[in-house]
Amino acid sequence: MSTKEKYWKYSLVTLILGLGALIVGELWAFVSGLLGAFTIFVLVRGQMITLTERWHWPRVLATVVVLIEVAVMILGPLTLIGWMTVERVQHINMDISGLQQMVDDIDRQIKRRFGYDLFTFDNLTMATGYMSRGVQYVIGQVSSMAVTLVVLVFFLYFILVDFRRIERYVYELLPFKEEHRLRVVNEIYRMVRSNAVGIPLLAIVQGLVAYAAYLFFDLPSALLFAVLTCFATIIPIIGTSIVWVPLVVYLLILGRWVDAAGLAAYCSIILINIDNVVRFILQKRLADTHPLITVFGVILGLSLFGFWGIIFGPLLISMFFLLVNIFKEEYLDEEE
Questions:
Q1: pLDDT score for 121
Q2: What is the Cα–Cα distance from 294 to 273, expressed in whole angstroms?
Q3: What is the mean predicted confidence (pLDDT) over 197-219?
Q4: Is residue 68 within 8 Å of 162, Cβ to Cβ?
Q5: Residues 184, 174: contact at Cβ < 8 Å?
Q6: How many helices (H) and strands (E) does the chain have?
Q7: If you average pLDDT over each of 154-158, 303-307, 316-320, which comes out highest?
């Protein structure tokens, strides 16, 4: 290759990387929608192949049918859960009086045992400030989620309509030999499918197991805390303990020693280990991912991508180790 050709080549690569970084930086707010669209595409890819290549449906018709299915099977249940939660907030099992009762009970016990007034002016001012920031954060997240859903549907439509050409184009750009290209693509699909199915399933199972305990030990707002337990499963390391440990402390403050010990034992032995059981079953059927990759991947992914980081964080770490293995097999092992 002549000097001029090298100059053209490296200049072109520099321009591509520079423009790519600029585009990604300016459109980063839409990355979550793109990642969500790719996740759903991986889940429905087999169905698209069946509709378009086996049954020979028009691509647009197949795409519309799959989008309707996604709306009914995925977005529908999420909307239903949100509606049910709002409805339950207005009733006795989850209304604010249950939470207020917990706070009043804790305040009385602290006053009686330690002589400390929990509801001083300074404490209430500080709590109001935290609540205000919390409400603003929730409103911001809801608005962001609405935008993400719109972007997700938009991206998903165009991915599904022309998915074979997109796959072929990306596949040809991968800088590997044919055998390594297959490994990389299979690893991406395997990890995305595993996390997209496994993480929500694990959250639902742990939420149901926790709900049974909260009802048995007669905790107020049991359904609310069960829902919070579902979402807490994605938090690395501490996980569901961020919900049930304060509830154990609450029972201790009330003097319900037996209930506190029972809830702590139940959650420590059963609730936490349900995670291991479900993961073991899923690993046999989906992907055998090392727990450390999952933990540190979620930490990495949440900081980079937000909610979708629980799927793509572990994928990034798995891809890193896969690329290291490819480099070792391609260049180091041959030299030996």
A1: 58
A2: 16
A3: 87
A4: no
A5: yes
A6: 15, 0
A7: 154-158
